[in-house]
Design brief:
Layout: H1 33-44, H2 60-69, H3 76-83, E1 93-98, E2 103-108, H4 110-116, H5 129-132, H6 136-143, E3 147-149, E4 163-170, E5 177-185, H7 194-215, H8 223-233, E6 237-239, E7 247-249, E8 254-256, H9 259-270, H10 277-285, H11 291-308, E9 326-327, H12 328-337, H13 341-347, H14 359-379, H15 382-391, H16 397-406, H17 414-426
Parallel strand pairs: 6-9
Antiparallel strand pairs: 1-2, 1-5, 3-4, 4-5, 6-7, 7-8
Amino acid sequence: MARPDDELAGVRAPSPWLAIPRDGRGPSVLPRRIVAESWERARDRRLDPERLLPEFELPESDIDDYRRKHPLSLLLPVVRSLLLNDIQGSGLIVALGDEKGRLLWVEGDSSAKRSAEDMRFVEGAGWAESRVGTSAPGTALVLDHGIQIRGEEHFNVMVQNWSCTAVPIHDPVTRAILGFLDITGDDRAVGPHTLPLLEATAAAMEAELMVSRLRTTPRTTPARSRIAKTTAAAPATLTVLGRDVALLSDGRHIVSLSARHSELMTLLSWHPLGLSAEELASLVYGDQGAVITLRAEMVRLRHALEVLDPRLAPLSRPYRLLGPLDSDVSRVVALLDRGAHRRAVEAYSGPVLPGSVAPGIEEIRENLSTRVRESLLADASVDVLLDYAGAAGEDDRSILMAALGMLPPRSPRRAGIVARLELLDRA
């Protein structure tokens, strides 16, 4: 890894290893490894962080024709219905770009759009990491997964007043990258709910693309085969980490559940074999005798879900889901089981329904938190431990001590950890 004092053909490059936060934005003294690696790729390409601006790679005369022919043009209604309805006045911009990092559509708050023109965040400009260094759109394409870049984590100093979250969009059959979806703005653009929202929107976009292709399938295709493809193309997902209410997607639409319905769907997804009425009442209300109240709530839940997708409505005797429901909780567990600690930390965006006091939710919340923490302490690298300590919201002494013990005695990163431990002691 390049050191901060390395020279770059006479150009002074800012260093993520030495950056100090301003106004609470930007990288900490101990930067995320994913950002440091992106900065190093930019330095290897000899990019100039103080003079570089995105180039216009699609001339104005060509962009309209190019956009009409691009498969993402079919998905604009999905993006607009899920992300753009109430964005005016929010200070946020939603952008859709191609697989080469070129912006194709930039929509959202008009004031923010005008300000973004100063850094050439406009249609036709190229935002590939190979061109401008670290940014959410370009780095998401390089890594092939969602990422959030805050303020001074951008390699280009002209972009460091902005923050952004981006996810790649894939072909639903080949899984090739078609482009990216991005939200850019102030700190709200990297809020804890932004990445899960974009991931759910990307899933809805990919499902819509599959459905549009199925509409053009020759009529000789057996109906049963078409139904099977449609079902496979629209995976249902539940997002509950770091959220007081869940987001539920059927692959095409996203709804926000009530707090109680969020608890019920989380419990049913955690217990795939099902629960009796008494068991579920105990997990939700802390009282096995609250069966009548539970049954009334389950009726309301079924009615709400049947409007979205009848396949999501729970069955009874025992209460259970018709099929597996993919959730951000199950994804974290699966990543931990595979030993993919870094990706598990990135996916663990917060506790399970933090505002819930339902006994069953508190049990799942504690179970997952303990599992993440113990897995990291047992087998994670120092960078993953520090990423987790930074994302957890408050310092964890055991995590910090484990990271300190793994660093060599002369590592400059030790000073930052020791300072955090001293703050804990004073607190």
